[in-house]
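Work Package 4 report. The design task specified in the project plan requires that, given a folded chain encoded as structure tokens, an amino acid be chosen for each position. We show below one input record used in the internal validation round.
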């Protein structure tokens, strides 16, 4: 039995039905770190009563990078060279921890005000593409580093922090 993966697509939409775009950054053509590939963490289980085969595998690009936007239709299952039609594919995403640093302060008050609205938009885009189990923290940097939202607070607190970023004065000086 073999599994083939196709290229990821950008079919995700936000609450308004607008298409979300997640781009993969330019990556170096060769790995950043050299070394031997470790053992694969694939799991194969077979239930004789139902003749069901379950395969869990880790998917990454040839250089070992994460692939965003994988969907079940990106995969095809083959047995002895014949594509299998009665196949269910589920894609699980491992949770991630993300820290967002918002900079306020300095001499350029007008620039800070201009960037504040963009921080709100970028933060909301981050929330739209992050999963339920992902952890997000938000830090503010002006004269000193300040934690606005730590990793254990919910999405409502994150949304309020991003909304408050539109007015740097609300976040303190």
């Amino acid at each position: 039995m073999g599994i083939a993966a196709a290229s990821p697509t950008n079919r995700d939409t936000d609450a308004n039905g607008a298409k979300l775009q997640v781009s993969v950054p330019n990556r170096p053509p060769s790995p950043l770190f050299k070394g031997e590939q470790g053992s694969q963490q694939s799991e194969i289980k077979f239930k004789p009563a139902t003749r069901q085969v379950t395969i869990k595998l880790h998917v990454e690009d040839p250089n070992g990078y994460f692939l965003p936007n994988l969907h079940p239709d990106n995969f095809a299952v083959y047995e002895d060279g014949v594509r299998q039609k009665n196949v269910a594919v589920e894609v699980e995403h491992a949770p991630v921890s993300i820290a967002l640093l918002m900079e306020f302060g300095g001499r350029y008050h007008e620039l800070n005000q201009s960037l504040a609205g963009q921080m709100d938009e970028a933060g909301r885009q981050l929330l739209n593409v992050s999963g339920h189990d992902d952890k997000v923290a938000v830090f503010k940097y002006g004269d000193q580093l300040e934690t606005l939202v730590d990793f254990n607070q919910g999405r409502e607190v994150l949304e309020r922090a991003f909304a408050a970023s539109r007015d740097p004065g609300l976040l303190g000086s």
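Confidence is low (pLDDT under 50) at residues 5-11. Validation will be extended to a larger panel in the next phase.
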